[in-house]
Design brief:
Blueprint: H1 3-14, E1 17-23, E2 29-34, H2 43-56, E3 64-67, H3 73-83, E4 87-90, E5 103-104, E6 113-120, H4 124-135, E7 142-148, H5 153-159, E8 163-169, H6 170-179, H7 185-196, H8 217-229, E9 233-237, H9 242-252, E10 258-261, H10 271-284, E11 287-294, H11 298-306, E12 318-322, E13 337-341, H12 353-364, E14 369-373, E15 383-386, H13 405-412, E16 416-419, H14 421-424, H15 429-446
Parallel strand pairs: 3-4, 3-6, 6-7, 7-8, 9-10, 9-16, 10-11, 11-12, 12-13, 13-14, 14-15, 15-16
Antiparallel strand pairs: 1-2, 4-5
Bound molecules: 6-sulfanyluridine-5'-phosphate.
The site of 6-sulfanyluridine-5'-phosphate has 16 residues, from strand 16 and helix 14.
Length: 449
Amino acid sequence: MQPREDFLLKAYELGIIKFGNFILKSGIESPFYVDLRPLASSPQLLKTLANQLLDLVEKSPFELICGVPYAALPMGTTMSLASGTPLIIKRKENKGYGTKRMVEGIYHDGQNCLLVEDVITSGQSLLETIEEVEREGLKVTDIVVVLDREQGGIQKLKEKGYSVHTLFTINEVIDLLHRFHRLDDSEVGRIKNFLENPPAPPVKKRVGLDKKQISHPVGKKLIEIALKKNSNLIASADVISSAELIKLAKDVGEHIVALKLHTDIIRDFSFELIEELKQISKEKEFLLFEDRKFGDIGNTQDLQFKEGMYRIASWADMITSHVIAGEESLKVFDNVGVVAIVEMSTKGTLTDDYYVGKALNAAKNSPNVMGAVAQRKVSDDLLLFTPGVNMSSSGDSKGQQYNTPEKVCSEYHTDFIIVGRGIYKAADAALAAKTYKESGWAAYLNSFE
Ligand code: S5P
């Protein structure tokens, strides 16, 4: 038996490949599942693997080794120990914004770094890793991969000029396990059929407002207004005087589902203003949405929400809050629909993938939260609100970035678009609101196709 075959059979015993029915991350149902992480539980096998991978790249010109997190980290480390080549570590959680370095360790510009990957499928995540490593000034020419799932990844990387060295292809693994009686003929047939005709990933259908699983009463009310008015438009009234605000509310009221306010920018704020807004909101049927973006400990937020000169709790139907202080801090917002800020629209925002994931979890676990502000799809049990919408501009000089109603509805499955300057700065705000309402609703309806 060849050393490669011996390694594979032992790795199989460890459970690195399983057969049956598995739902992959993409939603595809696969007859096998590969996970090379258990290899780290056998130091001997890990050493054997590292040596075999090093043999594959014997002639490659690398000066550093980097394992793609997380499964290939122990492989990269073992290769570094076995070859005496320094290791560097690529971070997974930091998406390149902020000040943290993406790659940790000692290296200098222009050094050649060998990337180690456990499994390659489409090649997309490797391409992203290469980009991040190259952005740090390092050079990537060679990549070594334990298993190629033969779904076009290798081809994609080769087209971009990278040399890819693979220890096994999935077909080879199947053949070997067949030959050594770990798989029977019918299983092999089923797997080969899957590999030859890989199914397309199921397309996640957009869930309409009428079918969304929203239990919060304010969320339900908002949906009811949207369906009645055929509108998914929230106007952001970022004006600084009561007179302007009242005029805007009257002008745009019939087209919107909610009027979003920043009461702390209004020079002459008063409760008469609030009373008048409440009156208009009742007549024109929209909700009052205070974009306070709370972001403190629960006790302070409680005071900011109920006390002070704005007494937000006494009149707002909806508020925004960051979730930076954690789930418990959101408990103070009773009797109001909370929209959690999980991702911001601005250039260089610190709300990276890692933050968004944790913020969404916190939002979903909080019964007061009915939705999220984000620039991406969120789960169907939250309403999605997307600001940064403008049909005639791509951004401003202070970091704001704009998308069209079509883009946010079709790509993010946005439920409600939030438009500020596109409406209140328009020569005719009423007409602009009508236009945004019509394009927003058309984009919403089109996003089901
Ligand atoms: O990420 C965000 C979150 C919010 S709530 N980006 C935003 O722009 N907003 C708010 O949406 C912002 O505070 C402003 O009130 C509105 C966008 O205004 P516009 O004039 O840029 O359309």
